[in-house]
Amino acid sequence: MIRLLLVEDDDEDARLIVTRLRRGGIDVDVDTVLSAGQLRASLAAARPDVVISDYNLPAFSAEEALRILRDARCDAPFLLVSGQVGEERATALMKAGASDFILKDRMGRLVPAVQRELRDAEERRALRSAEAALRASEERFRLLAEHSIDGIFRYRLRPDRALEYVSPAVTAIAGYRPSELYADPTLLAATVAPEDRPALEAAFTEPQSNPVILRGRHRDGHQLWIELRTRLVRDPSGATVAVEGVLRDVTEQRAAELERQRLDHQLRQTERLDSLGRLAGGVAHDFNNLLAVIIAYAADVGADLGPEHPCQPDVERITRAAERAAALTRQLLIFSRLEPSRPEVLDVNQVVADTEHLLHRTIGEDITFSSELAAGLPPVVIDRSKFEQIVVNLVVNARAAMPSGGRLTITTRSSGNGRVELIVSDTGVGMTPEVASRAFEPFFTTKGPADGTGLGLATAYGVVTEAGGDIGIDTVPGRGTTMTVTLPEAGRPAVVSALDAPGSASAAAGARHVVVVEDDADVRDIVVRILSRAGYVVTAPSSSAAALEICTAPGSTVDGVITDVIMPEITGPRLAEAIHAVRPELPVLFISGYTAGNLPGGHRLADDTPLLSKPFTADQLRHAVADLLSRARDPSRA
Predict the structure, then answer these.
(1) Where are the domains of the chain?
(2) Which enzyme type, at the first EC level (predicted)?
(3) Are 320 and 303 within 8 A, CB to CB?
(4) Is the terminal CB of the chain with fewer CB neighbours within 10 Å at N or C?
């Protein structure tokens, strides 16, 4: 049903119009008005679908009717049906908004004209509805874009390059306001790291199946990781005219991913180290037995030859190679936690002083070595042998950084906040930030395969952190490196043992009687030789049973026992138990190629058990035996 608003004062003409419309298939509901007031009242009651008006009416004119319709914002088609009207008036009405003009003597045009205007009106309503929906959609998109945490943009590429739109989220991502980017679109590209700008340009000119990850800098300077997704906009010819995209700040996700990768890498390294540690632990006993023989006999041969003998350098090379093999095995065991810690209160200055002779031999003549040891330094608590290893490792690394010579300085000092610092400085090649960041990774080394294992600093880091300390690196490429080991103060004074007292080994020997129990004949023979030359009376029985009989026989003159831990007939600890059942005062020193925490068969030694690990030097053996017998003679030192 079409609502027809008819402005007509002639009833006959009105009936004619309605009749023609109905016969033409247009079903109408007619509301006839004769004045401006009636027209306004009708419009207020309901909006018409079409308006048909005569030109001349007694109360008002077609021009006034058309004006009333437009003032009421009624856009229904307005058709004039009238007698003779001048062309000038008809043109003026059409310009004012009339849809068509039909002469009463040509009423055959009425139905087609109304049908046409109704169709056009429907199309206009549909268009307005679509435009309204589009505006609503655009508003929803605007709100979505402006409240999204992702940056949304459109960048025109042709005819010239310009940023057409960027959402407010870009401020949180890059630090620039949209107004600043509109004024200077290059600011956004400038935040991207130079090495990633080719990827940015490709994302603007080539189709991308996957997001592009770009590195950059926020306006305030902090590092960014940005995920960029783009879509190319093409014109009908296929030319790319613009690019639309989304920027997402993935800095936190990237940091988490890098941390996951680091932990994954660390896990693989740990598993690798664990495997190597198990391997090292498995061969440590036999390997250290061999090294003990090599080191001891080399030292013996060197002493017999004298310092001027032409073969002396060869003997020293043998000794250094064996010591390096022993150190590598020890580092593997320490880092894989197979070498237990025996923390004790240490004087850092004393440890540095005790190792200086070894350090001088290690660094060579082309490097100037000096030490600046602070007086009255508080003691620290750490495993002595492991701390000595740290000092040696740091010095070896410093030496390697100065292939053409330089200056190496060891400094100790109190930081004043309850911590003690050991500082090793060199004037070598230094490290880049990338190398320094990986310096403590196990197996990472910048040395050749023959010169480095990548375990030195990793081992040092593990030992120091286990003792509650830390290691710092201060390095500049081309200017040198300073390594600072920081340890907490012990809170009680260090104890100087017989190992630290000059001449204690020879003074303790005298005519003391020592029994050596060792199933490896080579090791047994060199231990007997070293101790015999030191002035001890040494008995080396052929079996554990014979040793037990000698030690426990009535009137036995044995002052101490040196026994291997793992032996075929009976273990060292079981032998010691049997001896102590008869002679509880008799001191026992254990020697072993295994570590205390890696004994086979589940055997363990108490933390305070005297243990000398193989390989050992002649000096270490003499000091260990002297200390053992001194403690037995003076129980207050035990």
Answers:
(1) 2-126, 148-249, 348-493, 504-637
(2) transferase
(3) no
(4) N
